[in-house]
Amino acid sequence: MLEKPIYRYIGTGLIVVGAMIIVVAAVIACASFYGYRIPEFTSPSLEETITKLMYTLVEITVRLGFLGVMVWGGGVLLKYGIESFKIEAKEPTFGIEYR
After folding, report:
1. pTM for the full model?
2. Which domain of life, per UniProt (predicted)?
3. Between residues 38 and 64, the one the model is more confident about
4. 94 to each of 19, 84, 88, how far by Cα in Å?
5. Using 50, 70 and 90 to split pLDDT, how confident is the model at 88?
């Protein structure tokens, strides 16, 4: 009975984990998009309004950065998972084959 090489299991695991991370990032992005409410800037002074606006922009930037890192990490895991399956494929032969 032939056993599968270990890189086959590792590749499958990397693909599953990478896909799960990307799906979780997409779900978080959709939930944030549909659940986001624009804050009301009703302060009497311009300084307070600008400060609240800056806090809002920083919060959005941090969320987008976190989602970007999640998708990047999931993409890297998918890449190496797929490459581990390519190891199993036969290498191409170059030149003329003689029989």
Report:
1. 0.71
2. Archaea
3. 64
4. 35, 23, 18
5. low
